[in-house]
Structures are given as C-alpha cells and as structure tokens.
Design goal:
Belongs to the binding-protein-dependent transport system permease family. CysTW subfamily. It is built from 11 helices and no strands. By secondary structure, it is an all-alpha fold. Helix 1 crosses helix 11. The chain starts with 15 loop residues before the first helix and ends with a helix.
C-alpha cells in the first residue's frame, strides 16, 4: 500500500513579504521617474516665463528689423518651422523606404548591420554634421541649387539669386533631414515589424504581391507609428542649434519662402546661440522670451501629434 502525502501549503508564504516590498519599491521608482520629467518640464517653463517675461516689452531697437516682440518672434518662428518642415519632407520618404527595406525586403544578415549603422548616426554630435555640411555638402549642393533655380525658378521656393556660398535654407534642410533620419527610421522599422504575421500571410495567400501586402496590411497597421516617428523627428529638427547655426547664413527674423538665396530667415535656436553671449542683458531677456515661444510651440506640436496618433488608433480599431 502506497501512501502519498500532499505538501503542506498552510504555512506562511516566504516570498509574500518580499514580493510586496519589491512591488512597492518598483512602483515608487517608476512614479518618481515619471514625476521627475514633469518637474523638469515645469522648471524649464517657469524659468523661461519668469526670466523672459520682460522681453515681451523691451526697447524697440532690440527687435530689429521690427519694433515689437510679436513680429520679431513670428519671423524667428517662421524660419524655425520652414527649415524643420522642409527637413521632414526630405527625410520622411527616405525613412519609410529604408524601414520597409530593412523589415520586409533585406535578408537578416544584411538588415542587421544596416540598421546598426543607421542607429549610429544618432550618436554623431550635431556640430559634426554642421561642419560636414559647411565644408563638404555646401559646395556639393551648389550645382543642384543652380539647376533648380534655372529650371524651376518660376516656383517661389526656387526663385531669386542663388547664394554663392551654398549656405541656404535648402542646405540646412538637407543636414537636418540626415540628422532626423535615424530616429524616424528606427521607429518606423519597429512598427512595421509589429504587423501581425497572419495579416501578411493572408494577403499573400489571396494573391497580393509583396507591395500590395505592404500597402494594404503593413502601412494601415503602422499609420500611428509612422506619425509618431515623424513628429519625433520634427521635434528634433525644431530644437536643433549648432548644425543650423553653421550651415545657414541667417539674416535675422524675417518671412521669406526663398530657400536658395543668401537672404535667409533665422531659427529661434540658432538666433539664441548666436546672440546670447553678448553683454547686452536686455537682449538676453528677449532671447529668453523667444525660447519660451519655442518651448510652447514644440509642446503644442507634440500634443497635436499625440492627438493624431490616438485618433488614428481609434479609427483603425
């Protein structure tokens, strides 16, 4: 006769206390990490608002070529948005194409090294991109700018006298496009790989080509991720300083759509970096006020991106 005994489970759980303590520690650490980000953002906003508030009504000569803060900030904000949007127009198609190649076309032994190299571009300092754009890319793009002016000069963007140095909005947009390419590509690549395998196989089983499978199964599923990657790239482009300062021959705050001339609008970040080291304290206050404008504009762009992503997810669901 065989007697079996059940293990005694009525005793105290030796791991219950430690598990509860670990959960509480992890919850507190996660809460502190999230709160620290909010505190840092609030601290930056308060600093810019307090230190830059008097910049909204400074002396008129500080707003040259304007006589008040509103048109002065609007001109800088226009230059910031123009360069960033042009960079996105250049970078986004390349980022989506590279991400699709790495996720659905390239063999694994090739896609992994290429993805690694693209991710390494994000580690290159912006000043290196600026020096490269100034010394190497500017002379190389000058024939392209001349061709665009000769053949498409009737378009307002390509009209006017081409800059002899090549330091134009067009060059700044190309440099920024290369800088935002890694982050946009990485996010698009990951969301493309998250497409359910059954959806892809079902499309191929119904006779779809690989492009039709990508068009009807991958891209709709990844729409919100593409928008998120694009907006993150836009945030990087809006705040870029040194690269734009080096490659753009800025002429101060102004509104002009010509991207090939020497009469270029300055961006907020490059204008702050160029003028903040001066001894004029009043000018520094004005620059802080423009920094507050850039902070709020970037926050609004990211908030709008989150709303678009959430709306697209609800619609797709």
């Amino acid at each position: 006769m065989t007697v079996t005994t059940e293990p005694d489970t009525s005793g105290p759980d030796l791991f219950a206390g430690r598990s509860g303590i670990g959960d509480r520690i992890f919850h507190g650490a996660a809460l502190a990490a999230g709160a620290s980000i909010m505190v840092a953002l609030a601290a930056v906003f308060v600093f810019l608002a307090v230190r830059g508030s008097s910049g909204f009504s400074a002396a008129k000569d500080l707003y040259q070529p304007y006589d008040s803060f509103l048109p002065y900030a609007a001109g800088l904000l226009f230059g910031t948005a123009l360069v960033a949007v042009l960079a996105l127009v250049i970078a986004t198609p390349f980022a989506i194409g590279v991400a699709l190649f790495l996720s659905h076309y390239a063999p694994r032994r090739l896609s992994a090294p290429i993805a690694y190299l693209i991710d390494l571009l994000a580690a290159v300092p912006s000043v290196v991109f600026g020096l490269w754009g100034l010394r190497a890319l500017a002379p190389a793009t000058l024939p392209i700018e001349t061709w665009l002016n000769d053949h498409l000069g009737w378009v307002p963007f390509f009209s006017g006298d081409v800059s002899a140095t090549g330091r134009t909005v067009f060059l700044a947009a190309i440099v920024l496009a290369i800088m935002v390419l890694p982050i946009t590509t990485a996010i698009c690549r990951e969301v493309f790989r998250q497409t359910p395998r059954l959806h892809e196989e079902a499309a191929l089983a119904l006779g779809a080509t690989r492009w039709e499978m990508i068009r009807y199964a991958v891209l709709p599923h990844s729409r919100s991720g593409i928008i998120a990657g694009t907006m993150l790239g836009l945030g990087r482009a809006l705040g870029e300083t040194m690269a734009v300062l080096l490659v753009l021959n800025a002429q101060g705050p102004k509104v002009t759509f010509k991207v090939l001339t020497s009469d270029n609008p300055a961006t907020i970040a490059s204008n702050i970096a160029q003028n903040f080291q001066g001894e004029n304290v009043d000018l520094q206050v004005v620059l802080l006020a423009t920094g507050l404008v850039l902070f709020l504009f970037t926050f609004l762009v990211n908030f709008s991106a989150r709303w678009i992503v959430a709306r697209a997810e609800r619609k797709f669901a």
